[in-house]
Amino acid sequence: MENNSYRRLMRSSTDRRIAGVCGGIANYLNIDPTVVRIIFLLALLFGGFGFWAYLIVWIAAPEDSRSER
User: Fold this and answer.
1) Most-buried pick from 17, 20, 24, 60 (CB within 10 A)?
2) Which phi and psi (to 5°) does residue 13 adopt?
3) pLDDT higher than 50, residue 69
4) Quick check: 23 and 33 in contact, CB under 8 A?
5) pTM surpassing 0.85?
6) Distances (CA, A) of 10 to 15, 46, 58, 64, 65
7) pLDDT tens per residue across span 12-32
8) 3 pLDDT exceeds 60?
9) Alpha-helix residue ranges (DSSP H) falling in the chain
């Protein structure tokens, strides 16, 4: 029997502040979304890398379609 339970990085549709990027990354890594948000904030403040990384993931990652809206 084949196991098709691979994980994909997707933007969260339920745990979002702006675009669901941090919530999606946190879900993918099984960590608290606040930790990911703090990491992005620090990356933004120290060199501006956080902005570009957030923007790239926002564009590249699809939104989670398993929304409970």
Assistant:
1) 24
2) -100, -10
3) no
4) yes
5) no
6) 12, 26, 9, 5, 9
7) 777 778 888 888 888 888 999
8) no
9) 21-29, 33-45, 49-60
Length of the chain: 69
Which token pair is 9? 């990085």
H-helix or E-strand spanning residue 36: helix 33-45
One-letter identity of residue 27:
N
> In this structure, which amino acid lies at residue 52?
W
Amino acid at 6: Y
Please give the radius of gyration of the chain, using alpha carbons only, rounded to the nearest integer: 13
Residue 60 tokens, joined: 């590249």
Supply 17's token pair: 């502040």
Residue for token pair 């990384």: 53
